[in-house]
Design brief:
By secondary structure, this protein is an alpha+beta fold. It contains two helices and ten strands; from the N terminus they run ββββββββββαα. The strands form two sheets. It has a five-stranded mixed β-sheet, with no helix packed on it. Strands 4-3-6-7-10 form a five-stranded antiparallel β-sheet, covered by helices on one side. A hairpin with a 3-residue loop joins strand 8 and strand 9. Helix 1 packs antiparallel against helix 2. The protein is globular, with a radius of gyration of 17 Å.
Length: 146
Amino acid sequence: MTWIHLEVLTVERTVLSSDVHTIVLPTVEGEISVLPGHVPLVSMLKPGALIARSDDEEHYLAVSGGFVQVTPAFVTVLADACEHAEEIDVLRAEEAKARAKRLLEERGPEVDVATAEAALRRAIARLSVAERQRRRRRHVPHRPSF
């Protein structure tokens, strides 16, 4: 199988560095799938799920925005913030979602609507990624070892 190398970086750390065969990215133009040999492109990312698949692994990550550069053999994601599904604190994400919704409902003069909407999108993305990971783990068939 042909591979593409994926690097997911934030200011603080390298979140993922792996050879994969499929990458799904949440760009501002819509969700795209990247396979080895993809045409070069640069795009902005929106908050959402980044999914990277290899033969034996699936990586689920929540990105809060950033940029992606795609070449035929290499994908670099520069994310504003990014975390693996296992790292997501679901309770904190639910609280952030409720806080953002409350701010948007109140819409007082001191509320920055764009900031509240961005916080809501980030919280929803984090919760979605955590839920996908939870469902995937629940439905992984048992493989007997011999």
